[in-house]
């Protein structure tokens, strides 16, 4: 009883005063730290290290530190791009799974101090963030494939190594808004001593938000990670790493009906979700020697709206190349995205209008293997990015029934693509199934074509109409495909500033 009264008192204080708000307690509302997380909302992820010089995504800790050799290191440029793109914070990978550190750590020789370019990158990025008015966050991999103590039978030796390094990072570089842990899957959850680490973080950086990737599981004693599509019911799933201030399930996208209440030892905790996506169309986190295309701005814009909705946050990975600079075409892309979105400092984020197709009645001309439960058309309008409608033939039709009193002037379609994994084992190459298609609306007893294309759909196709339409149903008709089409989401939206044409 005394414990519950104490937690209740702390919860009240968290709501009314920032003094205790940095500590996670049972609550139905965001605390002070979580409010700060949601307010900054949009950050730039930066992956940079030895992998940048070996074309790897995950290396094993054996690449020599001397391989790290940027010819024109310019951390100021990184943060200047972030500012110009409208990001509100920078999330720097200080140590990835390979163990290479971007600062001069007293506890390892696998760091920039042992390389040919000894610049303390953590310090330079932190100072640039202060210069340009951005907040500074850090990513740190729990998993370390280089540090000898990681393989010691007495794992507490590695925990001490890790806390020593975290103390360096949290003590020597000014204010840190966020600490993003990764790699926890390599050990049991309890092995990481998260409560002690969390206490250390809060003592050194009281307002720092702590998150651990893959924190949510289906049972209290399980390691079965839950996809965000399943996180649509409060108080159903559990935290395997406790305490953490927000959820991560890199690189998955949360459901439109994302819920915030998660359990630990019988208590319910409020946890927002932070998304991580890549600017690169190949989904590579570390930059590669051969330049790769960026994602379409239409897709990035739609993902921004989706990921910053429901009090959740988004970081987009924009990585420097082996020169130590962000490539000009990538900088241009992310800056143009910010301008298109119209992000303004200290102003609310732009929204995507009203989705009038969410959970609508829907029909499809075919379903893959007639398996409606797994591939039925309902999954194209359910608000989830891991579920999908899949057809059984190459020329299907999808019909979504709408409330004809509702107006719309935009359609966005997320297509499921053929995927091939690159040689690095992480990044991907994707191919569109749909090559030609049209969009029709039902008007005066027949179908009226309002859009047609003979170009591949891409990962996300956005169709903006110059006027509003109203109709009782809208149809996607595939005209050509290289394989049976499949869609994650078909969204019909009402955006402001359209003109009106009836489609009854």
Give the termini distance in whole angstroms. Answer: 62 Å
Q: Give the integer mean of the pLDDT values.
A: 93
- Compute the number of helices: 9
Which structural class matches the secondary elements?
Answer: alpha/beta
Describe the global form.
globular
Largest beta sheet, briefly?
8 strands, parallel, barrel
Write down the Rg: 24 Å
Strand arrangement across the biggest beta sheet: 1-2-3-4-5-8-11-12
Beta strand %:
25-35%
Strands, count: 25
Contiguous uncertain segments of 5+ residues: 1-21
Which range best describes the helical content: under 10%, 10-25%, 25-40%, 40-55%, 55-70% or over 70%? Answer: 10-25%
How would you characterize this protein structure?
This protein is α/β, with parallel strands linked by helices and 504 residues long. The protein has helices at residues 2-16, 32-40, 75-84, 121-132, 156-171, 194-204, 297-307, 328-341, 372-375, and strands at residues 42-46, 89-95, 135-141, 178-182, 209-213, 216-217, 238-239, 246-248, 261-264, 267-270, 273-278, 313-317, 354-355, 362-364, 389-390, 397-401, 408-415, 418-421, 428-431, 434-443, 446-453, 460-470, 473-481, 486-494, 500-502. It has an eight-stranded parallel beta barrel with strand order 1-2-3-4-5-8-11-12. Strands 13, 15, 17, 22, 24 and 25 form a six-stranded mixed beta sheet that branches. It has a five-stranded antiparallel beta sheet with strand order 14-16-23-20-21, with no helix packed on it. Helix 3 packs parallel to helix 4 and helix 5 (156-171) packs parallel to helix 6 (194-204).
